[in-house]
Records
---
Amino acid sequence: MDLNSKNIFSSILLCLIAVFLLSCSEYNKILKGSDYDLKFEKAKEYYEKNQCYRSLPLLDELMSYFRMTNKGEEVYYYYAKTQYCMGDYYLAGYYYKRFVKNFPQSYRAEECAFNAAICMMRNSPDYYLDQSDSYKAIDEFQLFMSKYPNSVWVDSCNTLVKDLRSRLEKKSFEKAKLYYRMEKYRSAVIAFKSALSEFPDTQYKEDIMFLSLKSNYLYAENSIDVKKVERFEETIKSYHNFVDSFKNSSYYREAENYYLSSLKELEKLKTKSNGI
């Protein structure tokens, strides 16, 4: 970089610093001032410019100042939106729900009810973590659709509920598979059954039914003789349920091997019990 370029760069940098300092000075003047109408206009302006870190301190003060006035509703609305903008979805969701409760007749109530559900969804973590917030989000979306059946956001709600349910399905499936990998076959059978009961149309249905069959077989195989008959019979029942649902499954041959092996084991146990 030559001397002339360095001078130009330094001049630009100094200008930027001056603008920044002037901006900070103006902001602090507004923040410390007593013109609350100006504060609100600036809070909205900062929000629209995505400078929510500036908008929030102003709105914090305005929430109490305009609480019982005609501007109270709009301040509350922007406060919830700014919390969302800041990424605090718990607080944003709380204030969106409070808005709906405090201003049920407002034209913004529907939007806030939808955004409250969105906040719940934003708090929903990856499938392998606790899914309490996913269940809450689904409930919130369903409550919204029940209250606003003709809303323009109903299709979005259905799509988001489907995505959340997919996350829950995966969580349930992976939990059952973990028991299977740990060779806790009884727990695996129970978990696979629970997953299928909660999500009968799950995308993992074929895998669940096959692994349930396999877990039943391995559970029976590792049982004491007095329990084997009942558990191999359960394996055979699982086999029939599986092939009835997935006749052309890639697991068919392996499933049939467990079925035939179970029949042989039952025959051996029958022979043994008869003392032959």
---
Amino acid sequence: MTLTTLAKSAFAGLIALGGLSAAAHADGMKDPKDVKISFVVHGSASDPYWSVVKRGVDDAAALTGAQIEYYNPQVFDVIEQARLLDAAIAAGPDGIAVSIADADAMRDGVEKALAAGIPVIVMDSGEGPGMEMGVNGYVGTVSEYDSGVKAGQRLAKEGTLKVVCINHEVGNVSLDERCQGLNDGLEPSGGGTEVVAVTPDPADIQRRTEAYLSAHPDVQAVFAMGAGAANPLIDLFHDKELFGTLGLYTFDISPEVLDSVIAGEMGFGMDAQQYLMGFLPALYLVEVAVNGIMPINSTYTGPLFVDTPEKAQAILTLAKQGIR
């Protein structure tokens, strides 16, 4: 695996500050190679979004030499994620990074970790609930709701008012907030959204979306709540020749999304830069274990609108490497 220039630069910066080196760690603190970190996320292994997060985690482990475990359910299941968090806590790590898609499901585990003196960083989703629980930091996009509002306002300016949200992780509060924000961004212009709940299975995404569109011919655009839904929708739009008739947009990006933007098909994808959601929490948690220091503010990674072929092309090479 080739480490990214970003990863190498970040590591070099920490070394320059006296962190993450065996010679520099404070008395009584750990050598980086003895540090154990656990990531506990809600995203399934098959979701292209989360494979980029995992790449960031792996790069951080390779750079620091720390022992980093990565836990995730096979399918979206917050109860299973809570069980995995309990298992991670029982192993006694030096730090935990966790996504919070459902605050009620994750609260007990997060508070248990904090009570045990384990630093916890929330990543990807759940900044607000996490801070209420007393976590040590957050790495991810700004408010999912606000991101949705910006997307809705943008569509409204383009005259696209009737939009359907395709939600492939029903029960994920972050995706609910995305669609609610989208709706509220459209509403002042007379627009709005409806939600089609689907499973992560590509065939199910295509089948349910096609059925909805057949029953609602006045819909102007389809908005995927993530790349896991966007990729099958791109195929559906090709198969049914919907590009040019309906708009297609998505939160998050993938190589397929970028190719579609380059081809002038999709309107835009919203880049969360999720590689950083895996990479930075790992570095922060290793740093606090080695030197007892950590940033005091949230670290925001996006979103960025990828809305032109030029922007998409600039990102595509990195996306195909699993970095964007």
---
Amino acid sequence: MASRGACVVAYAMLCGIWGSTWLVIRIGLQGAPPFLAAGLRFVIASLVLLTLAAVFRSKLPMGRTEWGLIALFGVILFTVDYGLIYWAENRGLGSGLSAILFATMPLQTALLAHAILRNEPLTIPRVVGILVGFAGVLLVFRGEFEAAGLTTLFPMLAIIVSATCAALATVAAKRWGHGIDVFTFNGFAMGIGSIGLLAWSAAAAEPWAVPSWPAGILSILYLSLVASVVAFGTYVWLLRKLPATSMSYIALVTPVIAVFLGVAIAGEAFDPLAIAGAAIILSGIYLSTSRRAVSWIRNLMGAGVVPEATSAGLKNPKR
């Protein structure tokens, strides 16, 4: 069983990698159309993962449940979720506003986990922590949210649906994904997802050409190898050790990382309130995962003490 330290390091690495993807996707769309870019990303990632599976002689999926989960993961996460994200950003939706809307994922995950997973009930501390964290995201990106108009309505709805897909995929993998090899699980799922994305690209009559250098090619390579192969391998590994709701808190942290990367790399304007928003986000995660904070909230609400198994979050990875 992995140590708590290993889980914390892996979790922080995921936040850093996925915090960078909003900016990298936006840069990459300057050199390739959205569905083609997403499709090529997962074609490359799938080939790398299946090659690693062959090298390490990974066990192939067996039975309807495992193959069904892989197909579900491939379609709802890699085709629909990422297809909508790339499409929305290509339609002019800012990466900040996209991050706000995608930050609805933790609440959606908590609701789905309550319905599907036996040991992840929807507790008051979780709801309080998620709402506090989301308030922090709104503070970080309040300017983009206030400036959004009707022209961005459909891209905004697309991001909300993408967050729903990600939440469903997370809960499904937590419920039925135990025992499936990480390489084969992600490799086949990304392969299925890439087929859907390339079909979407063909249906949208996107021009099929070699992505431009350096924006298109470097973006696809980074997103394939780092944000897909490394990140999703780590994600599935962590999901077997942490509650699904705790994993979804990554969606609250990544927008803050995206802001600071935008300032440092893309020369975006710095808003001092972003620091306050980041502190509020971290406070929300603490309220949801700290045993002391959970007990305090439950006692404040007159509901007693939450069992350790449902409240420990990152503090209790040995599940």
---
Amino acid sequence: MRPTGPLHLGHLAGALRNWVALQETHDCFFMVADWHALMSEYEHPERLAEYAVSNVADWLACGIDPARSVIFRQSDVPEHLELYAILSMMTPLGWVERVPTYKEQLREVKGRNLATYGFLGYPVLQAADILLYKAQAVPVGEDQLPHLELTREIVRRFKHLYGRDLFPEPAPLLTTSARLPGTDGRKMSKSYGNTIGLADDEAAIRAAVSQMVSDTQRPRKSDPGHPESCFVCQYLGVFAPERAPAAWEECRTARRGCVQTKQELADALVQVTAPMRRARPDAAAVRAILADGAERARAVARETIREVKTAVGLA
């Protein structure tokens, strides 16, 4: 996860809940991707270190356990860049250029110059992030499948070129949760100001929910509602699934208005996030966990780099 700003409900629904569950069945490495963040924030990197610490504090508050998982910062493990450089030498340019998100982000990201070598090559850095730990599987959304397929192609090319079966082809662990829209119905983005932060207090949460776009097809409370297209109802389904069916039915039959649903959603979000705020560790504790995680990650990374250098004739 790139430390480009405070974490919000989209991160909780789209990634963190899944990460917590994966700890029960997998040996997990969770990485703060600060080199990837620098790719888009190179002109204004002042807060990357701060966000790295605050993001991990949120991870821990959500249930990521440093006793069961390795939690580390990418820039604390220089072997990532070493493997990235080696893989870059053997990855055809056309493979990188055809990754769909490359052209999409060039079109979508405003106010930043992403026409850089680093941005073009970041899928190879992602491959290095995965292969350095010989990951068997990677939790991804559907939009990240082309990146993972590139990693698998690099694995096959490495084996073909050097005759060494060093890396498994990582399988996707598809995230099943739906992508949440922002509070205004647009794509959720910190730059749009349409997020609810995991560290937001009760007053901030209630204020944000009160301003949410609800059912635009329902001009009067007495009109039947359309919960399937209402962003407030979508949030309720994610964060209070036990309450959602009744709320949706009452909405459809005009037995409740949008204000009531917003109040119910705000109550649910406060209930979900309050324990996280209480469990959030301080910065010193987070830095200690990151330092320990870096040592554990480097122990694996050094051995992988030793094997790779031998395979490509550098050792």
